[in-house]
Amino acid sequence: MDAAQKIANELPWEETTSFLSFKSSYDLQGASHVLYFDSKLLESKDKLLVIDLTNKKYIQRGMQYPVTLKDSLGLSEVKVI
């Protein structure tokens, strides 16, 4: 986070960072579901952000500041169903 704080205009939360980038045949909802439930993430503790760069949409789970995230990304948020 220290390095990100040096280059970002604003980092409004203190969340750890893990990053994966990959293509998938799953749609955004499907990928989010598999990553969230099959990874055994803890709802009270873990955060998940899945971005579909092709369609400029994302799904988030557990973010403390979802409005700030939406404003920062400039993409359309898809609600989890």
What does this protein structure show overall?
The protein has 81 residues and is of the alpha+beta class. The protein has one domain. Helix content is 31%, strand content 15%. It contains three helices and three strands. A three-stranded mixed β-sheet has the order 1-2-3, covered by helices on one side. The N and C termini lie far apart (31 Å). 4% of the residues are buried. The model has no long low-confidence stretch (mean pLDDT 82).
Strand segment tally: 3
Terminal Cα separation, in Å? 31 Å
* Number of helices in the DSSP assignment: 3
Report the structural category: alpha+beta
Give the SSE string: HHEEHE
The major sheet is characterized as: 3 strands, mixed
Q: Please give the domain count.
A: 1
Shape label: globular
Strand content: 5-15%
- Which regions are unreliable across 5 or more consecutive residues at pLDDT < 50? none
Report the radius of gyration as a whole number of Å. Answer: 13 Å
Round the mean pLDDT to the nearest integer and report it.
82
Strand order of the largest sheet: 1-2-3
**Which bin fits the share of residues in helices?**
25-40%
Spell out the blueprint of helices and strands.
Layout: H1 2-7, H2 28-38, E1 48-52, E2 57-61, H3 66-73, E3 76-77
Parallel strand pairs: 2-3
Antiparallel strand pairs: 1-2
List keywords for this structure.
3 helices; 81 residues; alpha+beta
Briefly characterize the structure.
The chain is α+β, with helices and mostly antiparallel strands. It has helices at 2-7, 28-38, 66-73; strands at 48-52, 57-61, 76-77.
